[in-house]
Design a protein that fits this description.
The complex is a heterodimer of chains A (about 325) and B (about 325). Chain A is of the alpha/beta class. Chain A is about 30% helix and about 20% strand. Chain B has a domain of about 60 residues. In chain B, β9 and β10 form a beta hairpin. Classes of the chains: A alpha/beta (about 325), B alpha/beta (about 325).
């Protein structure tokens, strides 16, 4: 039980817009254990980033968040005050953003920003904070760490900045790290290094890691479990092995067909494609969100909400009527819809 | 041998970079002695990390930036002797970000027909029809003719950019990261479209990309660029199956294929891309190279011909390059 770092149940985010309520995230349930990596994968607009912001309680003010359960290391953080939340944020859980240039303050040195993260939450002296900063900068593979403390973000390359961001996220020794597209802005070579580093640090500090990405290559290499999101809902969950070897949802299968795989996809051959566009999430949608683009759509798909069907193995689930007929059975008890 | 549509001979470009107030400017060699031939109908992919000079090279090939040394030939004529309009008739770009490369205040129709207007096309009455033809070719519905870019999705916008590039029927299209701003499912649609257009219109592509899986899929030839030089070049198949330069190897090793049984690769490349203002001595790759030899720090390698291109690495000697290949 104590192994569960994060438990979210039926997280829903609504955003009012002039043309009606935008149901950005609809009854998303995820959990992360200590030492485990959960990847949330999906295309832009599917609600994956909003989900992470909701967990951190960093949603835009006009967005409303509801959930039946939102617990971090066993403590419910649902609707606690802002003061208590800011004790948890950055301390128990921290976040790494996509663009390291815009998420570091250009007017402060690396050392200031690293120490601030620690001194904001813990009673430590400047010297101790500095020592911890040097220790972590070395941990994330930055050479001459002590001399970097006096530098400003613009003096560092993109890869180094992202390493600083990771070091900053680790300053308080969090239980959970949420990394939102941490490598999208980086070169492939640096991407591999940063992912390597994240995986290593996660093992070493036994943290939970939520990695949000659209890159299926990254997901396959780093994830223990995967949640595929589409149009505000989780459409499929499973281990990386299950998702990539036996994808059950037509959307997951479509996504996998879209990416060329060196050595497997015939060079120059047509890639798979998912025709159509993501539906608007304004207003209620009666049936399956993917129905308009699904190659295997049936009449029943559009009539009623599709429940999340639980698979035979724990943690395996699919939101698709076809999958229900095939391998997986029994709609979920929560009736997530 | 197919015809050469674009050739770069030993071109270089340097920029003078200010070092701060009252300090001398220093040259930054963004592109440093590049030789490149683009044959009709091929897809040449230019790969390398950010800051290696890919975009500067593309700008020179588009005639947007004069090289500081070397010569460029377009269709057998020196590029310097051609006017901007003549260059634009032969070479057209497609840029990375369809959100910023389209004027938000112009309608789709006027964006697509602008090249006709610029080229002083004699027959304005036919513009709409020609625009609709090209829109159909790139898979845009005709009804968006009077819409604005903000009303289109990212994939549709990239189709507009492609339509605009193709309306004057250029021979060469320079695609600078054409899909990296797009979602996975949209990316595959655009890649399929580019493949179809190449066959239908007999286009030649220069594709700049850091997504090596995409490059592998599209390219017929690959040129790997590092700190302003092309360190390895050859047929796509040969470069992929048996990369010779240690940098090419490292790049290929960092491609993350969606295979859950493999972990994150360790590229053995040091963290830092070197400062291009302060280039390493000898082979510019030696500080990050896993196969560094003592002479690498002193001696810059010379291009060694391989069976389909060349490689610049001291690991290989004049006649040896082909042998290593097979072993």
């Amino acid at each position: 039980m104590s192994d569960k770092i994060l438990e979210v149940q039926d997280l829903t985010i609504d955003i009012p817009t002039p043309s009606g309520t935008l149901h950005a995230v609809q009854k998303v349930s995820i959990h992360v254990d200590r030492g485990e990596t959960l990847c949330i994968v999906g295309e832009s607009g599917c609600g994956k980033s909003l989900t992470s912001l909701a967990i951190m309680d960093l949603l835009p003010r006009k967005a409303t968040r509801t959930a039946t359960r939102l617990e971090i290391a066993g403590e419910s953080v649902f609707d606690i005050g802002e003061r208590r939340m800011s004790d948890i944020r950055g301390n128990r859980m921290s976040m790494i953003f996509q663009e390291p240039m815009t998420s570091l303050n250009p007017a402060y040195t690396i050392g200031d920003q690293l120490s601030e993260a620690l001194r904001r939450h813990k009673k430590v002296s400047r010297g101790e904070a500095r020592d911890r900063a040097v220790f972590l900068l070395e941990k994330v593979g930055i050479t001459a760490a002590a001399s970097r403390l006096g530098q400003y973000p613009h003096q560092l390359s993109g890869g180094l900045r992202q390493r600083v961001m990771i070091a900053m996220a680790l300053m308080c020794g969090p239980d959970l790290i949420i990394a939102d597209e941490p490598t999208t802005a980086l070169d492939v070579t640096i991407q591999a290094q940063i992912l390597h580093l994240l995986a290593e640090l996660q093992r070493e500090f036994n943290m939970g890691l939520i990695l949000i990405t659209h890159d299926l290559g990254v997901v396959a290499r780093i994830a223990d479990r995967v949640a595929v999101m589409y149009a505000g809902q989780i459409v499929e969950t499973g281990t990386a092995e299950q998702i990539f070897k036996a994808p059950a949802h037509p959307y997951t299968r479509g996504l996998l067909a879209c990416i060329p795989i060196p050595g497997q996809t015939e060079r120059g051959a047509h890639l798979g494609a998912i025709p159509g566009i993501v539906p608007s999430l304004v207003g209620r949608m009666p049936g399956c969100h993917f129905a308009s683009r699904c190659p295997e759509v049936r009449d029943s798909c559009n009539s009623a909400p599709i429940p999340q069907f639980q698979g035979a193995e724990p943690g395996r689930s699919v939101r698709c009527l076809l999958a229900d007929e095939a391998a997986v059975r029994q709609p979920a008890q929560e009736g997530a819809a | 041998m197919s015809e050469i549509v674009l050739e770069a001979r030993d071109i270089s470009r340097s920029f003078m970079i200010s070092q701060g107030f009252m300090r001398a400017k220093r040259p930054l060699h963004a592109v440093n002695g590049v030789n490149l031939k683009l044959h009709r109908g091929e897809v040449l992919a230019l790969v390398g990390e950010s800051g290696c000079g890919k975009t500067t090279l593309a700008k020179m090939l588009l005639g947007l930036l004069p090289p500081s040394a070397g010569s460029l030939e377009l269709d057998g004529k020196p590029l310097a002797s051609l006017s901007h309009l003549e260059v634009a008739r032969i070479v057209q770009p497609i840029f990375q970000d369809p959100y910023s490369s389209l004027n938000p205040r112009k309608s789709i129709g006027s964006i697509i027909t602008l090249p006709l207007q610029v080229q002083g096309d004699k027959d304005p009455a036919s513009w709409r029809q020609r625009a609709e033809e090209i829109m159909e070719l790139v898979g845009l519905p005709r009804r968006v003719y009077n819409n604005f870019p903000s009303q289109l999705s990212g994939g549709q916008r990239q189709r507009v950019a492609i339509a605009r590039a193709l309306i004057n029927r250029p021979r060469v299209v320079i695609c600078d990261e054409p899909t990296s701003a797009l979602d996975v499912s949209v990316q595959s649609q655009i890649l399929n479209l580019l493949q179809d257009l190449r066959q239908e219109l007999g286009l030649t592509y220069l594709m700049i990309s850091h997504n090596l899986a995409v490059v592998e899929h599209m390219a017929t030839r690959i040129a790997v660029m590092y700190l302003g030089r092309i360190v390895e070049e050859g047929e796509a198949e040969a470069v992929y199956n048996s990369p010779r330069h240690p940098y090419t190897e490292a790049l290929l090793g960092s491609v993350l294929t969606p295979d859950p049984s493999l972990g994150v690769p360790d590229t053995h490349l040091g963290a830092a891309y070197p400062n291009p203002l302060d280039m390493p001595s000898g082979c510019s790759f030696h500080p990050r190279c896993a196969k560094m030899m003592p002479q690498c720090a002193q001696q810059a390698p010379r291009p060694i011909p391989t069976e389909s291109g060349h490689v610049e690495c001291s690991l290989y000697k004049e006649n040896e390059a082909k042998m290593r290949m097979t072993s």
